[in-house]
Design a protein that fits this description.
By secondary structure, the protein is mainly α. The chain is built from 6 helices and 5 strands, in the order αββααβαααββ. It folds into 2 domains: 114 residues, rbstp2171 (2-Layer Sandwich), CATH 3.30.2220; 47 residues, no CATH class.
Length: 183
């Protein structure tokens, strides 16, 4: 398999912004304008930079470890706010600090919704077990060659021992695997 060619193709597919309806904030929008905030889908490098930016944010604002938990969701939402083209709004420390402050003062219902999208788009905390169950395709069944019944296919999408690399499922809902059976 040519991973380099596949990853090169993937690079051409832009990551997308995730629209989130915020009708509670209708007063912020012009008449007829969609009442949406956008949450960035981060690349792996951007996600790592977000983690580093959070540590720097705490240090810059002299926030103790004890108080840092109170601001984490607000920080993540502020960091991920973007336009409809997935361009982040807070690209400098000053803007990020201001956004975190404004987000922290916004109602929990709204921030909860925005954070849920941040988490889903960027795997901040991982994926909810119910969501995981609904998106993981089961392994196809094939007949064993010795006639002893069915066994799981040895395709790349099979489940391995919990916690092993083989237990990680591809992020697709339709996983097509060709299975050849012997006659």
């Amino acid at each position: 398999m040519d991973y380099l060619a596949k990853l090169r193709q993937n690079r051409e597919t832009a990551v997308r912004a995730n629209p989130v309806a915020v009708p509670e904030l209708q007063h912020l929008f012009k008449p007829g304008e969609p009442m949406l905030f956008y949450i960035a889908t981060l690349t792996a490098v951007e996600k790592d930079r977000m983690d580093d930016a959070y540590a720097l944010f705490l240090k810059r604002n002299e926030i103790s470890d004890k108080d840092s938990r109170d601001l984490y969701r607000s920080f993540v939402v502020a960091y991920c706010l973007c336009d409809d083209k997935n361009e982040r709004s807070a690209t400098d420390d000053h803007t990020l600090d201001q956004l975190v402050s404004y987000v922290a003062e916004t109602g929990n219902k709204i921030i909860g919704r925005l954070f849920t999208v941040c988490n889903g788009a960027n795997r901040i905390y991982g994926i909810d077990e119910e969501l995981k169950k609904s998106t993981v395709a089961g392994a196809p069944q094939v007949k064993s060659e010795d006639g002893s019944g069915e066994q799981h296919s040895t395709s790349a999408s099979r489940r391995g021992t919990r916690g092993s690399a083989a237990s990680v499922q591809p992020n697709t809902q339709n996983s097509e695997t060709s299975v050849s059976s012997s006659s």
